[in-house]
Amino acid sequence: MKYSAFTLAYEALRGHADWKPAWREPEPKAEYDVVIVGGGGHGLATAYYLAKEHGLSNVAVVEKGWIGSGNAGRNTTIIRSNYLLPANTQFYEWSMKLWEGLERDLNYNVMVSQRGVLNLCHSDAQRDAFARRGNAMRLNGVDAQLLDHSEVRAMLPFLDYDNARFPIRGGLLQRRGGTARHDAVVWGYARAADRRGIDIIQNCEVTGLTIRNGRISGVETARGPIRAGKVGLAVAGNSSRLAAMAGLRLPIESHVIQAFVTEGVKPVVDCVLTFGAGHFYISQSDKGGLVFGGDLDGYNSYAQRGNLPTVEDIVEGGVALWPGLGRLRVLRHWGGIIDMSMDGSPIIDRTPIDGLYLNAGWCYGGFKATPASGWCFAHLIARDEPHPLHAAFRLDRFAAGMVIDEKGQGAQPNLH
Ligand SMILES: Cc1cc2nc3c(=O)[nH]c(=O)nc-3n(C[C@H](O)[C@H](O)[C@H](O)COP(=O)(O)OP(=O)(O)OC[C@H]3O[C@@H](n4cnc5c(N)ncnc54)[C@H](O)[C@@H]3O)c2cc1C
Q: How far is Cα of residue 98 from the mean position of the Cα atoms in its chain?
């Protein structure tokens, strides 16, 4: 059933008799051409583009819990393409272009809201770095605007300007950046993939990888073995665990990062805002809650929960920037496991095992990458060769000294 205003009106008149589940719950088949491990945004997007762009629909997405139960359903929904280095700029800008057409493509309202992403600067040196990044973005065809103190003040009058510990000098604004509703993205890709024949298999943990003579031939799961010609890993914070099943050690560490949402208030902040002098960023959800977050908890973990010292650090940053925030109550607070690569940039590549592909290393910022990541990973898996857009995201770049050290963006905690 195609979703539209007409369908909605028609169903309303008929008492909503014909709505079907948005995707099926199939039993796993004995064999698929491709098995994607991980039903987050990246895994589902990969499956969708495998079917749409490459005509491969004998594909399963195998998820240990429910789809979106990982970081896809836990992030703070920011999308942007304000990167400095060419490899990242091109990739994230392609993602932004896919976001801009995603609702029409998926026939699903993923609530893309291009409300702008504003990174604040608090020193002359930081402003110079932002000017450099903004220039690089514009040279690469990405929109960027450097704002001075008074322009920021006109936009966000409620921040602390006059008595501030970290005076606001200006900011770098990407107007086309913004937010998208994270779980709608998961559901939209799931529904669109299902409509193209992809099997989405939930509650099916992958417990082993079947490898013979250096080639993968399937996966072991909690619901029995599944044979596969090719297997793609898109398990974010669990990447090291899955890779270990193939005897691989990845240049990735898993860390916890937390996020928070306050009680709903009237519209107050109409962009995504990042503090440049501490670990804090914030936006407002369509329901009115202020959604905010900050830095990593600072130790390796596979637990989806964080600790109070980090909560204190994040709230301190928030109140230093915006004192009025201290009057709001936090309603919910959670954590997710993120896959930190050593240079802050992702990996989309073949592995040394034939037929086994890796999509990982998304650090704090993989939500915005979801469309391009799926698009590129599907290309790699279908053709067994990288697309130029992600050719630099190689697994061996750390050994080869070809790191993409985007520390001004990718690994910078307060610039999600
Ligand atoms: C608090 C927080 C805030 C964030 N904010 C932002 C932001 O504002 N903007 C941004 O761009 N990014 C943000 N991120 C990062 C972003 O959410 C992730 O980089 C991205 O979601 C990772 O890709 P994914 O969606 O496929 O991962 P996930 O949703 O984590 O998908 C991986 C899936 O693999 C499954 N899995 C794991 N092991 C197995 C197994 N053995 N068998 C089967 N399935 C398995 C998991 O259950 C999970 O569903 C944030 C992350 C967190 C935690």
A: 14
Q: What is the largest CA-CA distance in the chain?
A: 67
What is the tens place of the pLDDT at every residue in 27-71? 999 999 999 999 999 999 999 999 999 999 999 999 999 999 999
Instruction: Identify any residues that bridge with 34 across adjacent strands, giving them in sequence order.
Output: 59, 230
* Centre of ligand 1 from the C-alpha of residue 370, in Å: 10
Mean residue pLDDT across the chain: 95
Q: Which residue has the tokens 């990739």?
A: 91
Confidence (pTM): 0.96
Amino acid at 175: R
Atom index in ligand 1 nearest the CA of residue 335 equals 1
For the chain, the distance separating the N- and C-terminal CA atoms, rounded to the nearest angstrom, is 36
> Cβ atoms within 10 A of the Cβ of 403, count?
15
Tokens 């990405």 correspond to what residue? 142
Out of 75, 295, 314, mutate this one to test ligand 1's pocket (max ligand atoms within 8 Å of CB): namely 75
Q: Tell me the best of 67, 71, 409 to mutate to test the pocket of ligand 1, counting ligand atoms within 8 Å of each CB and taking the most.
A: 71
Answer whether 174's CB lies under 8 Å from 116's CB.
Answer: yes
